[in-house]
């Protein structure tokens, strides 16, 4: 069964809410102050992403134009990690990058199953937003982890 526009919005908002909850819980468990702060930042961003989706859902979707977002593909070459309370900055960035990578793939797969043009445009916008988040994290990783090694 093809997902409906409203179902896609609902799913995307739940995804962002779940991501915010995940980062909030990880922040509570983290032992290092800078790691706690990073998770708090990620949580706030996910709450912001949910607000963007709410805005998109109320906009006239035909007026919105998805844009191409650069993919540095850094996360493609990193392995999935499991959260540990004493993780360092690099590992936290990896967890966040991989989560954004999965979101892009999930929406890209969803796009292949949807025929409705309005729903397709919505999914393209969601792919764009998740790609922007992934790019931001990959730039952070490139500049503050890879550049130091």
CATH fold annotation? Ferritin
On the 0-100 scale, what is the average pLDDT? 90
Question: How many individual helices?
Answer: 4
Shape: globular
- CATH class identity: Mainly Alpha
Give the amount of beta strand, in percent: under 5%
**Fraction of residues in helices?**
over 70%
Give a structural overview.
The longest helix has 30 residues, at 117-146. The protein has 4 helices and no strands. The chain has helices spanning 5-29, 33-58, 89-113, 117-146. It has a single domain (5-146), classed as Ferritin (Up-down Bundle), CATH 1.20.1260.10. It has 149 residues and is an all-alpha fold. The model has no long low-confidence stretch (mean pLDDT 90).
Question: What would a concise description of this structure say?
Answer:
With 149 residues, this protein is mostly helical. 71% of the residues lie in helices and 0% in strands.
Features:
Ferritin; mainly alpha; 149 residues
What's the helix and strand layout?
Blueprint lengths: L4 H25 L3 H26 L30 H25 L3 H30 L3
Helix pairs in contact: 1-2, 1-4, 2-4, 3-4
């Amino acid at each position: 069964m093809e997902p409906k526009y409203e179902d896609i919005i609902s799913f995307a908002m739940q995804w962002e809410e779940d991501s915010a909850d995940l980062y909030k819980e990880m922040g509570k468990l983290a032992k290092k102050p800078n790691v706690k702060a990073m998770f708090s930042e990620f949580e706030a961003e996910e709450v912001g992403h949910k607000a963007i989706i709410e805005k998109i859902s109320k906009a006239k979707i035909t007026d919105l134009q998805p844009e191409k977002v650069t993919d540095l593909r850094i996360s493609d070459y990193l392995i999935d990690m499991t959260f540990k309370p004493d993780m360092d900055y690099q590992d936290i960035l990896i967890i966040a990058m991989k989560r954004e990578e999965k979101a892009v793939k999930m929406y890209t797969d969803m796009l292949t199953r949807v025929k409705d043009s309005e729903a397709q445009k919505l999914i393209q916008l969601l792919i764009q937003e998740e790609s922007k988040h992934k790019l931001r994290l990959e730039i952070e990783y490139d500049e503050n982890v890879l550049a130091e090694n």
